From TrEMBL:
Name the UniProt record assigns to this protein: Glyoxylase, beta-lactamase superfamily II
SMART domains (UniProt xref): Lactamase_B
Pfam families hit by this protein: Lactamase_B, WHD_BLACT
Domain of life, per lineage: Bacteria
Length: 269
């Protein structure tokens, strides 16, 4: 399993993460995607069918790597955590090649959008849908009840914080609560959309909640000091920011501004 203490796998080389989940790292590493998008192949041990979660960018080599990771198992479902192109661009092509159905919460990707607590059968493997808006309005996570793993897309990353757009920060905190409930079983692990697996999920979720709340508090303090403009707040809060990430930082600041304007207690104790 790829964790923070081990090197990431090479793109295209299958890397088992749990008994039922195998990682195929996409070759799209950049400032936004870190090492690349994590594509997951899910199957019950010994099964002749599997599902693919977040097939990633439309790339010939990545498509070939996914099919190789599936091996003799038939791909019967293409599951998407959210519609961003680095997760979903290959979905329809993979579905055409394999005859599988695409399942997602975004209606642009599927004829029957996923709902909270839906269950998807992949042979003997049960995949339960957790609706977790925040990063996007269509974000879902996929729980494997048989082992307690949750595939979190961009809701919880292996490192760093996801972008949360204005008006969705309250949803994001609610989704972290939802994930904490789902990951309470011993041995649970987070399998994120980017970055390494997180074997201590409750602590990881709490760490991310506190980090986001610290940022909210920093914005509130800066506003009290008279810094109101989003661009000025970015300069104040991110003094060493890489230029490629400025747009992401500005969106995050604007999300905090929207949150503090609508929540009477934006930084709970």
């Amino acid at each position: 399993m790829w964790t923070r203490d081990t090197a990431p796998p090479r793109p295209g080389v299958p890397s088992p993460a749990t008994e039922r989940a195998t990682l195929v790292l996409a070759p799209n590493a950049n400032a936004w995607t870190f090492e690349g998008t994590n594509t997951w192949v899910l199957a019950e041990p010994g099964s002749d069918v599997c599902a693919v979660v977040d097939p990633g960018p439309d790339d010939d080599q990545h498509l070939a790597a996914i099919l190789a990771a599936a091996g003799e198992r038939r791909i019967v479902a293409v599951l998407v955590t959210h519609a961003h192109h680095d997760h979903a661009e290959l979905a329809r092509r993979l579905a055409r090649v394999t005859g599988a159905a695409v399942r997602a919460a975004h209606p642009r990707l599927t004829g029957e959008p996923l709902q909270d607590d839906d269950e998807i059968q992949v042979g003997a493997l049960t995949v339960r849908v957790l609706y977790t808006p925040g990063h996007t309005g269509d974000s879902v996570c996929f729980l494997l009840p048989a082992e307690g793993s949750v595939l979190t897309g961009d809701t919880v990353l292996g490192g760093g914080s996801p972008i949360v757009k204005p008006g969705r920060l309250g949803q994001f905190f609610d989704s972290l609560d939802r994930l904490s409930e789902a990951l309470a079983a011993p041995g649970s692990v987070i399998l994120p959309g980017h970055g390494p697996a997180l074997p201590d999920p409750l602590a990881q979720i709490e760490r991310r909640r506190k980090a986001r709340l610290r940022r909210v508090g920093q914005v509130v303090d800066a506003m009290a000091d008279g810094i109101q403009d989003p661009e000025d707040l970015v300069d104040h809060l991110y003094p060493d920011l890489h230029p490629d990430l400025r747009d992401a930082a500005r969106i995050s600041v604007e999300a905090v501004l929207a949150h503090v304007q609508t929540d009477p207690d934006p930084v709970p104790s």
